[in-house]
Amino acid sequence: MQIINPIYFDKEKIASLKATFNTNTPCKHILLENFLTDEVANALYDHFPKMEEMNVKRKSINENKREEYHFEKFDPIFSEVRNALASQEMVEVWQEISGLSNLELTYDAYGCGIHQGANGSFVDVHLDYNMHTEKDLHRRLNILIYLNKHWKEEYGGHLELWDEKVTTMEKAVLPAFNRAVIFRTDEISQHGVRKVTCPEDESRKSFYGFYFTPLGDDFKYRDSKFTARPEEGVVKGMVVSTKEILKINIKRFLKAIGISKLDFQDKN
C-alpha cells in the first residue's frame, strides 16, 4: 500500500519545498497538503482511538490534551504510517529539504504517537525539549499530520507560530484533514495550539513524528519552555515564568547531586 502521497518524492516538488522551508518565517517550516494517500488518511481517521482509550493526560496551566504512543494498541495502519515516516526514502526527502543529515525517527514515546484534544483543549506557546535523553539524540524536526474531517475555522485549534520573543503571532495553521506541517525544532520555533471550541462530538486529532540526529560537540540541553501569550495577562505570565524557573532549578539540582547528567541551557 502506498502510504505517502507520491508527489512528495518528486524531485521538482522537493526542490520547491526546500526553497519554501528555508525562507518561511518565523521558523523554518512548510505545509504539506494531502500528505498521505486518501486511503491511508481515511483509515487513520476511521480507526483513531476514542478519547477515553488514550491514557496519557497532559493537563496543567500550560496544556490540556491527551496523548498515546503505544502503537500495539492501535489499528495496524498507524504502525504502517510510522514505518513510512521512518523509512530511508522519507528521511532522505527531509534531509534534502532541511539541510540536516543523519536524521532518524525513533520507535518510542520520544519519536512518534498521536494527540487528541476535546472542546477546551489547548497548548500554550512553547519551545520543545531538544534531546532524547535515553538515546542521547538531538531533536531537530517535528512533523504533525492532522486528521480532522469537516474542521471549521471557528473550532479553533490552530497551530500558532510565534516570533522568538512571543510578542507577535505570525502564522495560524488550521488543522485541516490530511494537512501536515513540518518545522525545525530550534531556539526560535515558538509554537502553540489555540484553545479548541468544537462541538462535544468532535475532537482535534493529529499524528506526530519527531526526527533526531546524533549529539554534536557543542550541544546543550534545553528543556521544554512555555511562555504566556501577551494577551493572557500579567498574572498568567508571572505564574508561567515562575513555574519554568522552578522547573529548571530543580533539574539543575538533580544534576548537581548526580541524578541527572544533563547540561542545562536556560534563557530566562
What labels describe this entry?
26% helix, 14 strands, Jelly Rolls, 26% strand, alpha+beta, disordered C terminus, globular
Write the layout of secondary structure elements.
Blueprint: H1 11-23, E1 29-32, H2 38-47, E2 56-59, E3 63-68, H3 76-86, H4 88-98, E4 104-105, E5 112-117, E6 122-127, E7 131-132, E8 137-146, E9 159-162, E10 169-173, E11 180-184, E12 190-193, E13 204-214, E14 225-226, H5 233-256
Antiparallel strand pairs: 1-11, 2-3, 3-5, 3-6, 4-13, 5-13, 6-12, 6-14, 7-8, 8-11, 8-13, 9-10, 9-12
Structure description:
This protein has 268 residues and is α+β, with helices and mostly antiparallel strands. It has a single domain, classed as Jelly Rolls. 26% of the residues lie in helices and 26% in strands. It contains five helices and 14 strands. The protein has helices at residues 11-23, 38-47, 76-86, 88-98, 233-256; strands at 29-32, 56-59, 63-68, 104-105, 112-117, 122-127, 131-132, 137-146, 159-162, 169-173, 180-184, 190-193, 204-214, 225-226. The longest helix is centred in the C-terminal third of the chain and has 24 residues, at 233-256.
Strand-and-helix sequence, N→C?
A: HEHEEHHEEEEEEEEEEEH
Low-confidence stretches: 264-268
Ends: how far apart? 48 Å
CATH superfamily: q2cbj1_9rhob like domain
The count of β-strands is: 14
CATH architecture designation: Sandwich
Rg estimate, integer Å: 18 Å
Q: Can you tell me the CATH topology?
A: Jelly Rolls
Could you write a compact summary of the structure shown?
This protein is an alpha+beta fold and 268 residues long. The chain has 5 helices and 14 strands.
